């Protein structure tokens, strides 16, 4: 009787393994078929905000993990194109 139980359980596990392999293959195919998202332009409409009281720090936009000089180049380009008044402190400590 014990051998029959082991044989039955082994068959169940083999069926479950085959099912999981099939599911895994289907998920991999779905992942490969997904196309990456490309964002051409992000616009922030800060002028539309109504602020009665503002205190503390307001961080708007994407954060950068680059060094200060690279960030300054990006900011300078934004200022040049958008005529926005932004300043960058190059003495900032780089994140560790």
From TrEMBL:
Classification via InterPro entries: Spore_germination_GerPC
Domain of life: Bacteria
Keywords of this entry: Coiled coil
Coiled coil: 3-40
Pfam families: GerPC
Protein name: Spore germination protein GerPC
Native source organism of the sequence: Thermoflavimicrobium daqui
